Amino acid sequence: DVKVTQSSRYLVKRTGEKVFLECVQDMDHENMFWYRQDPGLGLRLIYFSYDVKMKEKGDIPEGYSVSREKKERFSLILESASTNQTSMYLCASSFSLRGAGAFFGQGTRLTVV
Amino acid sequence: DQQVKQNSPSLSVQEGRISILNCDYTNSMFDYFLWYKKYPAEGPTFLISISSIKDKNEDGRFTVFLNKSAKHLSLHIVPSQPGDSAVYFCAASALKIIFGKGTRLHILP
């Protein structure tokens, strides 16, 4: 059974903290994505990666960075968490950049207080 | 500027009838379109996709139609079942996947 696993379902962090969200996939996919989902805004692309050590900005990269040191792992980093980064974060992986057959993790609900 | 638009935030359909979810896009560079389904507290799951070289793709109860000239696609679910109640996201891709805001589908008993 294929899987995209996000390390935490729920996180509460303080303003100004550095936050790491981890995502691991077991499908040997080249492409991995980080989205955030907010009510009324749908899923917005933060960053994506098409290969190890390669990354591209999505539509809302400000305040975030990413790391892809190994093919199976894609990390999202909030350098200094702020309350407007409270959201549901979703990781996905796909064999195609076009999203064909993309699999999503269950999401991390991050609250910044 | 929204590139992928789902103009209906919610839709209610009687069980057994056809559900039609609509999606419009603005970027003519999109050449691949997808539909995802999302239950609360779960990640989205891939439902069905269509390439821009086609105008229809079927998978069981789900059919996606693409009208390139109108930059419009729709997802038909027939017959609708209670388990179809979820949020449906339309997505389009060129070099990255752009999602719409979603439509919440309620299947009424």
What's the multimeric state?
heterodimer
H/E order of the elements of chain A?
EEEEEEEEEEE
- Tally of helical runs of chain A: 0
Identify low-pLDDT runs of chain B: none
Q: What distance lies between the first and last C-alpha atoms of chain B, to the nearest angstrom?
A: 38 Å
* Alpha carbon gyration radius of chain A: 13 Å
Largest sheet features of chain A: 7 strands, mixed
Strands of chain B, total number: 11
Distance between the termini of chain A: 36 Å
- Point out poorly predicted stretches of chain A: none
Query: Mind telling me the C-alpha Rg of chain B?
Result: 13 Å
> So what's the overall shape of chain B?
globular
The percentage helix of chain A is under 10%
- Helix percentage of chain B: under 10%
Strand content of chain B: over 45%
Portion of residues in beta strands of chain A equals over 45%
Which of globular, elongated, flat, extended, rod-shaped describes the shape of chain A?
globular
* Mean pLDDT score of chain A: 92
Q: In sequence order, what are the helices and strands of chain B, one letter per element?
A: EEEEEEEEEEE
Can you describe this structure?
The complex is a heterodimer of chains A (113) and B (109). In chain A, the strands form two sheets. In chain A, strands 2, 4, 5, 6, 9, 10 and 11 form a seven-stranded mixed sheet that branches. In chain A, strands 1-3-8-7 form a four-stranded antiparallel sheet, with no helix packed on it. Chain A has strands spanning 4-6, 10-13, 19-25, 31-38, 42-51, 54-57, 64-70, 73-78, 87-94, 103-104, 108-112. Chain A has 113 residues and is mostly beta strands. The termini of chain A are far apart. In chain B, strand 4 and strand 5 form a beta hairpin. By secondary structure, chain B is mainly beta. The model of chain B has no long low-confidence stretch (mean pLDDT 94). The A-B interface holds A 4, 33, 35, 40-45, 48, 56, 58-59, 90, 92, 97-107 and B 6, 9, 31-32, 34, 36, 41-46, 49, 89, 91, 93-102.
